[in-house]
Amino acid sequence: MDILEHVKKDYLLVISAILALVSLFIVPFDTVLSYDYPRIVETICTLLFFLLIVAGLKECNALKKVAQRIVGNLKSATALCLALVLLPFFCAMLFSNDVALLTFVPLAITILRMANMDLTMVAVIILQTVAANTGSYLTPFGNPHNLYMYNLNGYYGFSLLEYESALVPIVAVGTLALMAMVLIVPKQKLDVSLVEDVEIKDRRLLPFIMALFLLAIVTVLDVVPFYVTLIVFVVAFLIMMPQVFRKVDYSILFVFFFLFVFANGMTNIESIHDGLIDLMSRDPMLTTVMVSQFANNVPTTILLQPFTDDWAAVLVGADIGGFGTPIASMASIITLKLYLQEENSSVRRYFRIFIPINLAMLAVLIPTYYLFV
Q1: Among 57, 55, 124, 63, residue whose Cα is nearest residue 90
Q2: How far is CA 232 from CA 57, 216, 229, in A?
Q3: Percent of the chain at pLDDT above 70?
Q4: Contact 142, 135 (CB under 8 A)
Q5: Residue 114 class from Cβ within 10 Å (0-12 exposed, 13-18 middle, 19+ buried)?
Q6: Distance CA 95, CA 146 (A)
Q7: If you average pLDDT over residues 135-140, what whole number do you get?
Q8: 189 three-class SS
Q9: Distance (Å, rounded) from C-alpha 110 to C-alpha 343?
Q10: 73: Cβ–Cβ under 8 A, 6 or more apart, which residues?
């Protein structure tokens, strides 16, 4: 029974591990050994930096304090929903979309229940997912596939400015679409106290955590070697707050590694290899979007990147491809997982809102790419 409960809790980890294991039996062992492990280790370590930072901020109650300041004095449902949606939008730019949702979806559920807005809750947490995805596009460390692609800048030869230029149009249009959907939420007056007073703990540690955050950013920008930053992070958190190592969701890191092994294995199967070459030669962006709907945009990025020199098409396609089906992005999986843990949750109610919103984002963002390409 304990094993079954663990599988239900971390089914994405289990599925990705099975896929990786299966791929090992399909691909010759010497090919498996030839995968670009140093690059994936660097990406995983960078993700770990931001997970540790968020765990540290949570331990200090800093994120709860920020949320309290933002939503504490709101007077309408529209203002509340907008605040709850913007929290993961901006947080995702700094700490990744997955971390933003793990932080703010439970907070939104709690606040909306206190505000007697249970019927609005599903729409808000789905819009939070849209917001986290959209906001995460803007930075190299906003999501795992963005980080993976940015770590290939030496291979493709693009600059940070070129990287951002490829993403700004879809971020701008996606944000406008998001705001329009938030404003549809019915207006009503809120007469309840939304959040209890939160006190910052270990205030003296906050400057050190923010210094580590800046170190993580310059590491992503290749100013500091990642292994130096890894040593600094481990030592600093062991000294400051060793308990945060127990608060990190390491399953995200293992999922990313297993998907890397699986995706590399698939690209070495001759029939798949030839088919992907054909599709990517025709339209790499749209191919990335479509494959993401069935294989998740993280492994899709790793899978398709070797088949084209158009890095921007894969980057944008993976970001847009995060919308659509529930498995298109890990962010959508995380939100659905958190929602189903709540009492009286309804899969039918969830997808009745999830599908139209995601189809609308695809309908808006795919033409945006072709308009600005």
Answers
A1: 63
A2: 17, 10, 5
A3: 92
A4: yes
A5: middle
A6: 12
A7: 93
A8: strand
A9: 12
A10: none
In this predicted structure, the answer to whether residue 68 has a pLDDT above a threshold of 80 is: no
In b/e form, how buried is each residue of 171-204, taking b as 16+ CB within 10 angstroms?
Answer: bebbbebbeebbeebeeeebeeebbeebeeeeee
Best-predicted range by mean pLDDT among 85-89, 184-188, 255-259? 85-89
Domain spans in the chain, listed from the N-terminal domain onward: 2-372
- The beta-strand segments (E) located in 25-100 are none
* CA proximity to 55, closest of 197, 196, 204, 209: 209
**Could you give the C-alpha distances from 332 to 27, 264, 274, 321, 322, in angstroms and in order?**
30, 24, 31, 12, 8
Provide mean pLDDT across the span 279-301.
91
Q: Which amino acid makes up residue 138?
A: L
B/e letters for 272-287, b = 16+ CB within 10 Å, e = fewer, are: eeeebeebbeeebbbb
User: Which residue's structure tokens are 């490829």?
Assistant: 166
Q: How far is CA 227 from CA 37, 177, 216, 222, 368, in A?
A: 14, 40, 11, 11, 38
* Number of other CB atoms surrounding residue 140 within 10 Å: 21
